[in-house]
């Protein structure tokens, strides 16, 4: 059984002391020299809807450091997914900057961002995005194939990822033979197999009951510690927020 993990890392840092919208859960001080993994500065995103401009993000600043788990909460439509898409290089801001490991996503075309994404960012969505006819093992394998990982490394890496999410005994089950929580844990193994430094998860516990959600969160803490990556996730579930190093609250396109 997976246990809740002790937080071992310092919290994400606001872009300026006392930044609104951020709940600091605590932790030891970070060395002053630590470089952020991801920097979001002055980000705005608008969409053209008919003849109107819909302003969805209205000035977002955020710094995410390595080995941190941060959450975005906020009402439906507040802009959480829009922000996550920008953080993952799936979209570019209308204004402002997104730097991932110093790389200017806001200036790059889709091909360049896609190349970084394939190597260094993992995604988890609410609906597990597993291929139904493939086993857990084969689903994870697919991700290594896509990332161009040498075939000789596959077996060891797939096994260790599935062990990490507590599914060593379910490797050859197909998604329909697994519970919702187990399927989501396969999705996590799949998302981290290529060793990304950033994992983005949009409502990863939305379809799960509270016990399964707690297991998924325990796995998240475990992989932050073991794989040394950072996680940014969205959620509506207040019962899991204590697991985060930080919680940012969004309302109407800003942190409140
Ligand atoms: N491509 C787009 N074109 C037009 N409007 C968009 C587009 N993407 C998002 N929006 C609008 O932006 C607003 C914010 O959407 P977003 O999905 O970011 O919210 P959210 O906080 O993630 O909501 P939820 O919790 O329901 O997932 C919504 O009003 C949505 O309709």
Mean pLDDT reading:
88
Structural class: alpha/beta
Unique bound compounds: adenosine-5'-triphosphate
- The residue fraction in helices comes out at 25-40%
Categorize the overall geometry.
globular
> Can you tell me the residue ranges where pLDDT is under 50 for at least 5 consecutive residues?
1-20, 25-29
Structurally, the number of domains stands at 1
Strand content: 25-35%
Order of helices and strands: EEEEHEEHEHHHEHEEE
**CATH class bucket:** Alpha Beta
CATH topology label: Rossmann fold
What is the overall number of helices? 6
Distance between the termini: 37 Å
Radius of gyration: 18 Å
Major sheet details: 7 strands, mixed
Q: What is the CATH architecture annotation?
A: 3-Layer(aba) Sandwich
Number of strands: 11
Under CATH, the homologous superfamily reads P-loop containing nucleotide triphosphate hydrolases
GO molecular function: ATP binding; ATP hydrolysis activity; transmembrane transporter activity
Keywords: ATP-binding, Nucleotide-binding, Transport
Pfam families: ABC_tran
Protein name: ABC transporter ATP-binding protein
Question: What topology does this entry show?
Answer:
Blueprint (H helix, E strand, L loop, with lengths): L21 E3 L13 E12 L2 E13 L4 E6 L5 H8 L7 E6 L2 E2 L5 H11 E4 L11 H12 L6 H11 L15 H13 L5 E5 L7 H18 L2 E6 L10 E6 L2 E2 L1
Parallel strand pairs: 4-9, 4-10, 7-8, 8-9
Antiparallel strand pairs: 1-10, 2-3, 2-5, 5-6, 10-11
Helix pairs in contact: 3-4, 3-5, 4-5, 5-6
Bound molecules: adenosine-5'-triphosphate.
Adenosine-5'-triphosphate binds next to strand 2, strand 3 and helix 1.
Pfam families: ABC_tran (PF00005)
Protein name: ABC transporter ATP-binding protein
GO cellular component, one term: plasma membrane
